[in-house]
Design goal:
Rossmann fold; two-stranded antiparallel ribbon; 20% strand
């Protein structure tokens, strides 16, 4: 089975990872993914001249976000090695939208099971920040789960 575990360094993603690896079989292919939403340039309307933020600010910020993502996946790569999981790939996906990046990656790699931690956002935050878990589940035909899973193949959603 191709299993994609999305990690962001949060306690919920740690919990989802720990629960997911307990269900893995030796032959499973595991994809450890950190998705980064890159910062894009904005125009500042300040006075008659207006202006743009220096593009180097965005480049530096985005490189920093990707470096943080690499540190996160490296941490989980080491955990997989400690658990003697051998068929593991780790990637940082960087783009305009983390949820769209996860969905596309799952489609492109034939992912069969998607694992994410739950953020536990309320309605207002969910409105502004979106639902990372909901989007890939709707866009891809994959089983999804977070946290509380009863068996290897159920694929039920539950909060971590």
């Amino acid at each position: 089975m191709k299993v994609m575990i999305c990690v962001d360094g949060s306690e919920n993603s740690h919990r989802a990872f720990d629960r997911a690896v307990k269900l893995l079989q030796q032959e499973d292919e595991v994809f450890i993914i950190n998705a980064v939403s890159l910062v894009s340039p904005i125009v500042l309307a300040g006075g008659p001249a207006g202006g743009m933020v220096d593009p180097r600010v965005y480049e530096t910020t985005n490189e920093s976000l990707k470096a943080e993502g690499r540190q996160i996946v490296d941490f989980y790569k080491k955990k997989c090695a400690d658990l003697k999981l051998s068929n593991v790939q780790c990637h940082v996906i960087a783009g305009a939208s983390a949820k769209d990046g996860i969905s596309q990656y799952a489609k492109d790699h034939g992912i069969e099971l998607l694992v994410v931690g739950s953020r536990g956002m309320g309605a207002v935050k969910r409105f502004f920040f979106g639902q990372l878990f909901k989007s890939p589940r709707q866009q891809c035909r994959v089983r999804c789960f977070g946290g509380q899973v009863r068996s290897r193949m159920q694929g039920h959603m539950a909060a971590c």
